[in-house]
Amino acid sequence: PGSLRWNRSSIKFLAVGDWGGVPYPPYVTPVEQTTAREMGKIAKQMGADFVLALGDNFYYTGVDSVDSPRFNDTFESVFTAKSLNIPWYVLAGNHDHAGDVRAQIDYSRKSSRWRFPYFYYELNFRIPSTDKTLAIIMLDTVMLCGNSDDFVGEKPQRPLSAVDASRQLTWLKARMKKSRADFLLVAGHYPVWSVSEHGPTECLLKLLRPPAGQAQRHRLLLRPRP
């Protein structure tokens, strides 16, 4: 299980998505800089244990190399608050899949806080001062449903690889069936349900609603995607 820094009976974390700057100098926007400052303040106040970075980490076409300067210009040099020097558990969004997601995975070996072990993975924590546990399943919803075009249709049409999509779905169902965590969250880039401009993701409604309903303790944390 993950180790937490605070002697209390709770786990506290931030979630952020669609934060990935711009693909031209200075590779960061005023909105992102403001978000980073406010995240630093909130993380300090709440004593955040970690951050979930839920995709579109680098606009508009991801990164193409583990040595891309975007890692510094859009991430390391922006989220500089001491309170944000905590694990960032990362997954990919549709814009990240326009580049090389494996470069983002490989960056985990170069950054002390960037944690991106694979396209999809599971996190497990013991809640301090209790006998309760928390599991977070990090999904690659683009691998499950396909990429989307912000200007043409906007909805993911089909996965690039049906084999990879099926493998991830099989893994998800197995993890949810076997999980004994008291609290289980599922996180991804595309939303299942959403009232935003893009609306629900039909693919995820079909794929995820049955396994997510297998146990009352399971909860979905799938965020809206711009």
Key attributes of the depicted protein:
single chain, 226 residues, alpha/beta, four-stranded parallel beta sheet, 6 helices, globular
Can you describe this structure?
This protein is of the alpha/beta class. It has one domain: Metallo-dependent phosphatases (Purple Acid Phosphatase, chain A, domain 2). Helix content is 28%, strand content 16%. It contains six helices and eight strands; from the N terminus they run βαβαβαβββααβαβ. The protein has a four-stranded parallel β-sheet with strand order 1-2-3-4, with helices on one face. Strands 5-6-7-8 form a four-stranded mixed β-sheet, with helices on one face. α5 runs parallel beside α6. The chain is globular and about 40 Å long. The two termini are 33 Å apart. The mean pLDDT is 87.
How does the SSE layout of this entry go?
Elements: E1 13-16, H1 30-46, E2 50-53, H2 70-76, E3 88-90, H3 101-106, E4 114-115, E5 121-126, E6 133-138, H4 141-145, H5 162-178, E7 183-188, H6 202-212, E8 218-222
Parallel strand pairs: 1-2, 2-3, 3-4, 6-7, 7-8
Antiparallel strand pairs: 5-6
